[in-house]
Amino acid sequence: MAYRPLMGVAALVAFAGAAAIVLRRRELGAVSLRSLLVGLMLAIPFAALIGPAAGLPVAPQLFAFRLLLVAVALLGVPALLLSEAQPLDVERWRPALPLALWVAWLCLALLWAPDKTAGLTYLALLGTMLAVVAATVVAGLTRRRLLAFGVTMIAAYTAIVGVTGLETTLGLRLPTSRLAEGAGSQYFAVTSVFHNQNDLATYLAICWPFLLGAAFFTRRASWLALAVLLALPGALAFVRTGSRSSLLAAGLSTIVLLVVLAQPGSWLRTRRASIVGAVLAVALFAGAGYLLFNDSTDPMLRQFRLSALVEDITEGSGSGSIRSELYRRGLAIAGGSLLLGAGPGQAPALLTAGLGGTNLGNLHNWWLELYAEGGLPGFLLHVTFVLGLLWGLLRRARAPGSPLVRYLATCAFAALAGFSIGALGPSRTLIFAPMWILYGLSLAVLVAPWAAEDLVAARPGEGERG
User: Fold this and answer.
1) Global pTM exceeds 0.90
2) Which candidate, 135, 163, 124, 111, places its Cα nearest to that of 46?
3) Mean pLDDT, to the nearest integer, of 413-417?
4) Mean pLDDT computed over 383-409
5) How far apart (Å, rounded) are the C-alpha atoms in residues 384 and 124?
6) How far is CA 306 from CA 31, 288, 297, in A?
7) What residues contact residue 405 under an 8 Å CB cut-off, 6+ apart?
8) pLDDT (tens digit, 9 = 90+) per residue, 52-83?
9) Distance between start and end Cα atoms, the chain
10) CA 87 from centre of chain
11) Confidence class of residue 248 from pLDDT cuts 50, 70 and 90?
12) Between the CA of residue 297 and those of 104, 294, 302, 334, what are the distances in Å?
């Protein structure tokens, strides 16, 4: 503890865990394999959000998310062997079909991919993210699990925003941050548990509709206060990211949310909550307008200025010029493969190859990455999956049902719509866990049996009593 405190603390935690297992061995022995497996899967989305930040100091590659995946895999095989085979309800799982076909197409595209090792690595990483989707769907199959999942997501958000507070006040950065060894001119930026500030901003933009939507779906002052308390530090952290795409994404999701709620029969007649929601929406629009068109000389505020982006593109410098070159080469990659795609994981090598290669090995655009590596078939399959989610969520949001179903459907719909722009922010969206959690939550709302039962059993006016 004196000379190697991190290793000492890790040893104490391991000892405490072993002691707890020994002391509670009878209670643990009474837990069924299925219950244990479900409990581990509920922890996967939380661990995926925290990512490598939850790694061991002595072995950074062994972080909680990977360990949970291994544990679920080891327990899942005997659980499947011991359980009775259940017929698959294909009709209920139809929203997930385009996603499965997209994965199948990527596996087929590996046949003509020049770098098979990079392709297999890409598919392996995709498999871990599909596990996040599956774990989130499992969390939403029952109302009780969904509430537990919600608690873990609130805890993750609190931890992530809390780390930004440490970065802002004390200058402490996690080893996973790209700014850990010096921020240079971006001394103001925060990354939290993510690698860079754009990833953090995209995550906050995805969370925003769920915070704003809470004001329209509850009369409880405690929930309204919690939403505001979570939104304020998130807004302060967002300003320090300087992400224009995420700012536009948050604005778009706000507009979409208000439009959906403005439909006849959709507004919950809770005057206090509606006023709180309207104030939050107006505050966002006012703040976004100031940030996008500010003329401040402060480097933090200048990051948001749209005119600065236009200047970068015109002068051939800065992030605007870099992204323009990445997009041009990304389109060329798809065009050079007869629109079939270069194959999974091939874009980084193709971007940096040749005399005109870029220094960045990532397209920084999820939609373009889908097009470049999966070609037109892969792009259309993935977009079909997202559009199917949007259509299903919109129908659930406008249909009679319990406030919980309508809240999740409405906010997930707004978050997905905003992510259409937010997908331009993360450096590597393939391993961007918030997107896959949003996919999984959207699927859960559409396929969960209890959600469908709530829709069928809904009575007129039931949604107004939430």
Assistant:
1) no
2) 135
3) 96
4) 90
5) 23
6) 56, 11, 14
7) 396, 445, 451, 454, 455
8) 887 766 667 778 898 899 988 888 777 666 66
9) 52
10) 31
11) confident
12) 50, 9, 7, 40
**CA distance linking residue 352 with residue 283, whole number of Å:** 42
Residue 94 to residue 71: CA distance in whole angstroms: 29
Helical axes 306-315 vs 318-335, angle rounded to 10°: 60
Query: Cα separation of 62 and 75, whole Å?
Result: 19
Q: How far apart are CA 416 and CA 393, in angstroms?
A: 10
Per the prediction, the chain carries an average pLDDT of 83
Q: How far is CA 227 from the centre of its chain?
A: 19
Report the number of secondary-structure helices (H) and strands (E) in the chain. 19, 2
> Which pair of tokens denotes residue 34?
């299925």
With beta carbons less than 8 A apart as the criterion, state whether 16 and 110 touch: no
Alpha helices in 293-358 (DSSP H): 299-302, 306-315, 318-335, 347-352
Task: Determine if residue 51 is left, alpha or beta; phi over 0 gives left, psi from -120 to 50 gives alpha, anything else beta.
Answer: left
Structure tokens at 31: 């837990």
Select from 203, 139, 221, 233 the least CA-distant residue to 418. Answer: 203
Percent of the chain whose pLDDT exceeds 70: 82
pLDDT band at 314 (very low <50, low <70, confident <90, very high): low
> Alpha-carbon distance 179 to 241, whole Å?
12
- pLDDT of 457: 55
* CA-wise closest residue to 92 among 438, 445, 402: 445
What does the pLDDT look like over 150-209, one tens digit per residue? 999 999 999 999 999 888 888 888 888 888 776 566 677 889 899 888 999 999 999 999
Looking at residue 86, the DSSP 8-state letter turns out to be -
Q: Cβ–Cβ contacts within 10 Å for residue 456, how many?
A: 8
pLDDT at 323: 75
Residue 267 pLDDT: 46
What separation in angstroms does the CA of 18 have from each of 12, 14, 282?
10, 6, 52
